[in-house]
């Protein structure tokens, strides 16, 4: 199951011919922190030391851009646990497709986006069609805002997964702000998302959530090996209000290492 679903995200991105890419960035991440893994369990505030390994990719091509990540988490509470989760977003730029300048105010471009979210043990699957606004923000390498539907395609409890849910919507903003201090390079990047409330198959309300995951990265590769934009270390702060739609709020700092290739 993990291989098939994760592979589907990779194939969807890989449909763009490599030679057609205007730019491409792929990263491997490692994160370590104390996270609340069981917000619906008997001890929802209990934390577990959690290792997260991530494959992340972003690329631009003739008609738009693509982004996906796959997380593989490893932790222990009452027993050893492992699970995975992935998201992919495929944006078609109306400016690139039409060959026209569609900028207005702070908006540089407008795109039509299709998103897919998928989970392992939870067997969650969501579709997120909507629009992407590329914003012109001073100092930002990029600053994008997504406004999408949040359409449920879960197998449900009868299928051995998380409960089916009614549909909702999502607002997500992602950014990167590179900056330097002396001869040292840093970047402040991450995203902030809001997903609206919905109802599960038992009639229970799933709360709206806010998830913020800003990262502060230091370009260690430039300092140690004179290879800039290759090896980064830093921290990620995770703030998750109503984690997974529960009543639990998480505030956690995780160590971060990134290899870019």
CATH-level-4 superfamily name = Nucleoside-specific channel-forming protein, Tsx-like
In CATH, the architecture is: Beta Barrel
Number of helices: 3
As residue ranges, the low-confidence spans are: 1-7, 9-19
Describe the protein's architecture and organization:
The structure is a single chain. Strands 1, 2, 3, 4, 5, 6, 7, 8, 9, 12, 13, 14 and 15 form a 13-stranded antiparallel β-sheet that branches. A two-stranded antiparallel ribbon has the order 10-11. The radius of gyration is 19 Å and the shape is globular. The protein has 261 residues and is mainly beta. 9% of the residues lie in helices and 58% in strands. It is built from three helices and 15 strands. It has helices at 2-14, 94-98, 220-225, and strands at 23-35, 48-61, 64-76, 80-93, 107-119, 125-135, 142-152, 168-181, 184-195, 198-199, 205-206, 209-212, 215-219, 231-241, 249-260. Strand 6 and strand 7 (142-152) form a beta hairpin. It has one domain: Beta Barrel (Outer membrane phospholipase (ompla), Chain C). It comes from Oceanimonas pelagia. This is Nucleoside-binding protein. Keywords: Signal. InterPro entries: Channel_Tsx-like_sf. Residues 1-20 form the signal peptide.
